Amino acid sequence: MTRVLLVFLWLLHWLPLPVQAAFGWLLGHVLYVLVVPRRRVVHTNLRLCFPELSDGERRKLARANVVAVTRSMLERGVIWWASESRVRRLVDLQGVEKVRAAHDAGRAVIMLVPHFVGLDMAGSRMAMEMDCVSMYAAQNDKLLEKMLLHGRTRFRDQQLLSRQEGIRGAVKAMRQGRPFYYLPDLDYGPKESIFVPFFGVQTATIPGLSRLARLADAVVIPLIVRMKPGGRGYVGEFGDPWTDFPSDDVTADTARMNAAIEVEVRKTPEQYYWVHKRFKTRPPGEPKLYR
């Protein structure tokens, strides 16, 4: 089935992106109806994070989110097989000079990249600009994993670290001058997480940003990736480098990270990765939130 899917994506990538987007819009609406367990996850996340919305507004947002996730999956063929010139045209990086300036000044750099649906697009596009390092989660399907890694390395021989390698490899790479493409906002379980607020919910969060910044003496520069309307591509925008970070309080630093991500999510909530069980790990004594 993976091979069939890859052939389909290869064929699809030849089409203009607006056509791919239209197909993703249609398929996303179908999947919203058919994939009930994941739809429930999205609804649970939106109910927790947007209690001020009506049920109808949350359903509309959930449908738009499934469409955006579906589109991002289908359009991934572009970064797997399209030419460099086409990827440059479809994925616009704004503010990359902020990373270059910090790098040229001899600072280690952490690019803080929340889980918006276009993050892989910006990752491949950033590989054209600089020699970076990033982490990946091992996949059960090794063919799919091979393609995911291919998408991140086809334009430059980027350094990829598995999560099992921990932060030591990332710190070493940053000290060698490679900016770190860091994705911090998934629920990895209770072992290495602390609980800090996210949309007012106590959320298991890896405190790695604060620790990495301290160990590598790195500056944090956020990168927010969004789909352009009308299937016109993607835009990744680098924010200003964080000041007064890290502090002496890892918990406060991690709460600051979640708060910053929340601000950006509220701007385009339909493009955040709500299909993930972000609140699966609960503080001791609290009930499970997902059925």
Describe this protein with a few key phrases.
48% helix; seven-stranded mixed β-sheet; 291 residues; 9 strands
Describe the structure.
This protein is an alpha/beta fold and 291 residues long. It has one domain. It has helices at residues 2-12, 17-34, 36-49, 55-74, 76-81, 84-90, 96-104, 119-127, 142-153, 168-175, 208-216, 250-267; strands at 91-94, 108-112, 133-136, 159-162, 180-182, 194-198, 201-205, 218-227, 234-238. The strands form 2 sheets. A 7-stranded mixed β-sheet has the order 1-9-8-2-5-3-4, with helices on both faces. A two-stranded antiparallel sheet has the order 6-7. α3 crosses α4 and α11 (208-216) packs across α12 (250-267). The protein is globular.
Can you lay out the helices and strands and say which pair or pack?
Layout: H1 2-12, H2 17-34, H3 36-49, H4 55-74, H5 76-81, H6 84-90, E1 91-94, H7 96-104, E2 108-112, H8 119-127, E3 133-136, H9 142-153, E4 159-162, H10 168-175, E5 180-182, E6 194-198, E7 201-205, H11 208-216, E8 218-227, E9 234-238, H12 250-267
Parallel strand pairs: 1-9, 2-5, 2-8, 3-4, 3-5
Antiparallel strand pairs: 6-7, 8-9
